[in-house]
């Protein structure tokens, strides 16, 4: 029997390959103030978990928060992360230098910047922007983190 549009394999075959890369561990580099905004009443964890349940996905990613680039680099040396999300201010280290150092430790881990304004992105410069896998603009909606996860 030939393949038809109603054939199960044609319609649903390979569905499991639509998400070959799953984000399970996220390293979030944010100052204590930024982390407070994200984790207000554990809203971040609840939002991610709720979204994953709505999509019938079994395992929501775990978010590990650190407050500086130095802490993040140390965690990258110790543990494996699927995604690194950083804010602009990561301590005394420039975000571009931080992204470069992170890529040296974990070359396959995407490094995404979450900027507060278009001005931050402009100040970043082309050289530093090239070291990042992507840049997103924070407009106050916590769902941007879900968009980043889905994008990766």
Task: Describe what is shown at a glance.
The chain is of the alpha/beta class and 152 residues long.
Helix and strand pattern: HEHHEHEHEHHEH
Alpha carbon gyration radius: 18 Å
Residues in β-strands, percent: 15-25%
Q: How are strands sequenced across the largest beta sheet?
A: 2-1-3-4-5
What percentage of residues falls in helices of 4 or more residues?
40-55%
Shape: globular
CATH overall fold name:
Rossmann fold
- Helix tally equals 8
CATH class: Alpha Beta
| Low-pLDDT residue spans | none
Write the CATH homologous superfamily: Response regulator
Q: How many extended strands?
A: 5
Mean pLDDT: 80
The CATH architecture: 3-Layer(aba) Sandwich
Structural class: alpha/beta
Tally the structural domains: 1
How many angstroms does the end-to-end distance come to? 39 Å
Summarize the main sheet: 5 strands, parallel
Q: What would your notes on this structure say?
A:
It is built from 8 helices and 5 strands, in the order αβααβαβαβααβα. The chain has 152 residues and is an alpha/beta fold. The chain has one domain: Response regulator (Rossmann fold, 3-Layer(aba) Sandwich), CATH 3.40.50.2300. The protein has a 5-stranded parallel beta sheet, with helices on both faces. Helices cover 44% and strands 15% of the residues. The model has no long low-confidence stretch (mean pLDDT 80). Helix 4 (69-78) packs parallel to helix 5.
């Amino acid at each position: 029997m030939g393949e038809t549009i109603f054939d199960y394999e044609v319609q649903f075959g390979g569905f499991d390959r639509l998400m070959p890369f799953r984000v399970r561990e996220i390293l979030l580099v944010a100052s204590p103030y930024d982390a407070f905004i994200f984790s207000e009443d554990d809203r971040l964890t609840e939002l991610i978990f709720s979204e994953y349940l709505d999509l019938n996905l079994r395992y929501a990613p775990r978010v590990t928060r650190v407050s500086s680039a130095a802490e993040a680099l140390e965690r990258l040396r110790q543990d494996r992360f699927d995604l690194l999300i950083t804010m602009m201010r990561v301590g005394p280290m420039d975000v571009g230098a931080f992204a470069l150092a992170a890529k040296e430790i974990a070359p396959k881990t995407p490094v995404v910047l979450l900027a507060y304004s278009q001005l931050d992105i402009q100040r970043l410069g082309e050289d530093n922007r090239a070291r990042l896998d992507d840049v997103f603009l924070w407009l106050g909606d916590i769902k941007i983190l879900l968009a980043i996860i889905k994008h990766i």
